[in-house]
Each structure stands twice: as C-alpha cells, then as structure tokens.
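Exercise: predict the structure of this protein bound to magnesium ion.
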Amino acid sequence: MFSKILIANRGEIACRVIKTARRLGVRTVAVYSDADRDARHVAMADEAVHIGPSPARESYLVADRLIAAAQATGAEGIHPGYGFLSENAGFADACAAAGIVFIGPPPSAIRAMGSKSEAKKLMEAAKVPLVPGYHGDDQSPELLAREADRIGYPVLIKASAGGGGKGMRVVESAAKFAEALAGAKREAKAAFADDHVLVEKYLTRPRHIEVQVFGDTHGHCLYLFERDCSIQRRHQKVIEEAPAPGMTVERRKAMGEAAVAAARAIGYVGAGTVEFIADESGDFYFMEMNTRLQVEHPVTEMITGQDLVEWQLRVACGEAMPLTQDQLAIDGHAFEVRLYAEDPSRNFLPSVGTLKHLALPRRGSGARVDTGVRQGDAVTPYYDPMIAKIIVHGPDRAAALRRLQRALAETEVVGVRTNTALLARIAAHPAFAAGEVDTGFIERHKAVVLPKAEAADTRVLALATLARLLEWRRDAADRAAASAEPTSPWHSVDGWRLNGAGRDEVRWKDAERDVPVMVHYRRGAAGSAAGAYAVDCRIEIGNAVLDAGATLARDGSFRATLGEAVTSARVVRNVANDGGVDYVVFADGSVGGRTLRLVDPRDVSAAEAAGAPGGGLKAPMPGKIIDFKVKAGESVSRGQPVVVLEAMKMEHTLVAPSDGTVKRLLYAPGDQVPDGADLVEFEAAE
Ligand code: ADP
Ligand code: ADP
Ligand code: MG
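Solution:
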C-alpha cells in the first residue's frame, strides 16, 4: 500500500478520498488554490500545498504544479478525483515520467475513450450497439447539417471532448441547426479547448443506465452492476440510484458483459463507467465511457458493501481486486441526490454566496453525506456548485426512498439558492416512487416538481412573524443592558406600551405580493421568561386568525406554538446579497425552506431593498459577454432574451424583467464583467 498520496482535486471528492486513505493508514496531501485556503479538504488532509490562484486553469489544472507538489511532499501516488485532470492522458503520462503512480487507468485507455467520436468508432468495431449518428472527422457545418437531415430530427449535437453536460444542444428542426451548432462549438471551445462535435439521433424518453466496471493489472475485469441516472437537468445528473428500477437479471448480465467487453477492448485498469442510453423497449446503446471514478459511485458502494476508493488504491499498487464477479451481489437499494447551489426557477443558474446556515442530515439518520463544505464556507464562481451528495440505503427501493425523504427534510441551506425543494418534490412524486424514470422526468412533471412560486401558507408567515417579534425583544433587551438607564420606558417593546392598543404589524414580501401580518399581544403574557424571550399573541393574516406563542432561548433555539400544535420549525434571518433582510422558514411541508422578505419601516435597509427594482439584466456572477440579442434603442417584451453570458463554463441567457426599452448596451461581446454589473441600460415601460 502507499504510505502517502496527493489528491489533485478539491471539494467533496478530495474529502472522500482522504477518509478512505486514513482508514488504510495512508497519509494524505491536499492541494488548494487561493479560494480554497480554508477549505474543508485542506483542514482534513495531513498536509496541504498551495498551487495557485483561484481559477482552475491556474491551479487545479496545472499538471506541473501538482507533480511538483507530490515530489516536494514525497507522495508516491496522485488521486485525480473527477473533473479537472482525471481524464487527461497527458497528466497520467507526466505522473509516470516523474515516477509517481497515477491512481487511474493507463494513459492509453484514457486516450481511447477521451473523444466521444473516437470511442464510438472503437465500440462500433467491438460490435457494441451505438445510437444512430455521425461521428466522423469532417466538421464542416454543411456536412453536419446534411448528416442531421439524414439521421432525422430531433438530433443532439455533442462536444466530442464533452463532459458534465456541457457543449450539448438538442435541435428540433433543420432551421435551428446552424445556430445550435455555433452555440455547442462555442461552449465546447470554452470548456474543453476543443470544438469538435458529433451528431446523434435524440431519443425522446430514454433512460441513462451506466455500468461500473473495474479492472486490475492481473488481467481481471468485472462489473459492479448498474446505476440509473435518468433524473437529470440540463443533461446533468441530479438523482442516481442502484440498482436500476425494473432491471431484469438477463438484461443486467447483458449490459454488464457489454461494459466489460468495452473495458477489455482498451486494456482497462482501475475504476471506470460505461454509460448506456436505453429506450422504452429496453434496448441499450453505448454512449460514452468515463475513465475515472464517478460522482455517483457511492450508490454502488452502498449496494455492494465495497469501498471503491480502496479498490482504486489497491489496484494502483498492483494488488488484485479483492473480489471476483461471483462474489459480488446486490444488497438492497440506494439513492444519491446532488444538492446544488443553483436556482431551479432560473434555468438552474448556479448561485454563488456564503453558506450562512448549513444543516445536512445527521449521522444517526442513516444517511451518508459527502461534502467539501461547512457552514460559513462560500460557493464561488470558480468551481462546480455542488454543496453535498446525500446518499441513503435501504433493504428495498421503497424503504430507501423513505429514508431519502427524511434526509431531505433535515437539509437546510441559507445564503445561496439550492435545488433542495426540487429534490424533495421528485422524491415525493408517485411516478418516481413507481420507478417511472427517464431523462424527461423533470420536464414532464415540471408543474409539480418546479411549481411557480405559490403564496406562502399562513403557518409559514406566522412563524416568520414570531421570529421577528422575538428578535425585537432580544435586541431591545440588549440595548437596555448596554444602556445606563435599563428601566427607561423607551427600552420596552411590549406592544401595548408602544402604542397602547397592544398591536403590532409586520409586513412581508412573498412571491410578488405584500402581506401585512397583524399581531395582537395578550395582556400580561408578554415579557421574558427566565433565560428566554417569549411572545404570546393572536395573529391575523387576511381572514385567518390564529393563536400563537413562541420562545427564543439564549442559545438561539426557537419553539413555537400555532393553535394547539407545537412545531419544531427553524427560522433563519439572512441579510441577502442585495442588502435586503430575508427570513427563511424551515418547517414541515416546506422542505428546502421558504424565504420571506421583510418589508419593515423600522428596518431601513429592508425598506430600501423592497423598493429596489427587480433587475434581471445584471450579471448574476462574474462572466464573459457572448452576445447581445437586441440592439440599443430596441423595445423588448418581458421574458425576451437580451444578453448571453458565459459563466461557470455554461451559457446563460438573461431576459427582460418586464416590457420596456434597452436604451444602451454597456458592454461589448467578449468583455469580462464583474458580479452584479449592469449589462444594459433598461427602461421599463409605464
Ligand atoms: P459525467 O461526465 O457523465 O457528467 P459525472 O456526473 O460523474 O460524469 O460528473 C463529472 C463532473 O463532476 C465534472 O465534469 C465536473 O463538472 C464535476 N466535478 C469535478 N470536480 C468536482 C468536485 N470536486 N466536486 C464536485 N463535482 C466535481
Ligand atoms: P456527458 O459527457 O456530458 O456526460 P453524455 O454523452 O454522457 O455526455 O450525455 C449526457 C446526457 O445527455 C445523458 O445522460 C442523456 O441524458 C443525454 N443524452 C445523451 N445522448 C443522448 C441521445 N442520443 N438521446 C437523448 N439523450 C441523450
Ligand atoms: Mg456522460
């Protein structure tokens, strides 16, 4: 076994590799960029080496620095994780030349599968079924368009060097081909420095089923069954599970053996994944091979009881795999969800910011959480916006699904937008429970899983109001304590003393509407109990009236009673990036949290924020202007595309926030823009 390895990656995968290494007695070296100086993986590793500025191009992607760091610390092996240099054959070569073990497949196997086009040629020769398409070298737009006609629309354009769903465009008709091709090539060039593409038949209701393969240097090659990764957004996985629902023993064997044949054809060693796309009849076609460990490997670990990183380390040291095909069996069912910092309501735009409050499922809840962040850490525009992976296992699919639902109910994030509610709604959907998964699931069920912002319910508004009232009390007590005259009536915030009527009002802004909440204090019940602040009142919201009470202990814990019921809700106050004050309510039935904006005349910043225009034509994060879809002086209607921005290696289209006129373009295509920059001068119509 190694005595020391370097992990050429960051985030959750770096942390996950460190855990296995530690269990095996292997010392670990982390690497970090400027942005990651205080990152969790740095804190967890035995040693850490700074490798450069925040952009990955200048740090995590600089092979020489990583190799120098390994040499300087005496690491014998480098684990590349996924993304970054994990599928870079040149890096694997450079490791070998420096006498360091690359913990991954041989460079020749990476090269063989590095281009989706080349891989398809290889698989064609090995008689593995392929999706009809064109994967040749001629890249002239005319020829590609002719091939698309031949294949028949809809078609899918894919970057040959692609990964992570980038550089892909679905094209519905010949009229849209040229523009889609240009977009795919641009994105591919930006993300992979290679704009070679292929064109395939676009299957409309397929499933993504992939097979985990493993090879060693003793000539063994086997499969650790399949994962279903059909629940996707933007062609990227969101929920994965193992085994695939509805899989038969025969098909599992056929797919497993096809995957092993593909791996053997390229002399595969180490962990790899052969991805297939399966149609409704169950026929399956080779899509690509990922020559590395995959993000969703934990579901395979859960159903096989194996640690795949341990297998990787052993195989890289020349050991044989610990088990044979016959010794492997499936135990129960596992799910993984990817908790992303992104805004599902804005086409999954990554959301950057500080994780001001972060509660992930507790250890005792039976969930495994793989994460690279802690509360207080930031999601930056430099790297993948994944916050955590939540993994559950159960004796069968239904039991695992119940655990997943519980785990998601325990997940609380404040400070960035997340997909928590989307994940919870999918997990609660009857079609998902029935195993009716395909890559169109989210789109098909979008009315349910991505609902338009609905009005917050009365309970949520009441809970936020109670939290607000308690904070008034606490702040007043703090002021009184700090003041020379603690008994001055000016320090009292008891409602009846403030305005004689025993009443107060708190106003919230919720999904475009303003909601006044009236509070009637109950005489005599106000004031602070020992060690806690308390409020007891009747709350009126529109026509609804409810008796409510709450306490805030000095340790910050909040307890509320609404009507007869005691709730275990949590309310987190958050000063948002625009300076406004939000209250995020986590309560039963509001998985993912419900955000209410305080509109409070006593709170100047909030009042300002409430009056501020909605924006929508500001850069949501630092990026590069790709294209303006309008000219200066042009009038636009609400929702019309105005500008295309490239940020976090994806293209984002920003649309007009309302009907109006684009008076002036403030940048030119190719310009780099900072976070929050106004991109155009926009005048809303009256
Ligand atoms: P696929 O290439 O089929 O999408 P995965 O779903 O396994 O395969 O995702 C690989 C992606 O993971 C990379 O393209 C990259 O965007 C992302 N990635 C790379 N490093 C990390 C990391 N440390 N944490 C989370 N995601 C990462
Ligand atoms: P990446 O390298 O980004 O992972 P893949 O080739 O694996 O690219 O494709 C990503 C996803 O796109 C697949 O999981 C699937 O959902 C979808 N996809 C790929 N090829 C097709 C196709 N021919 N028809 C329909 N969907 C496809
Ligand atoms: Mg893929």
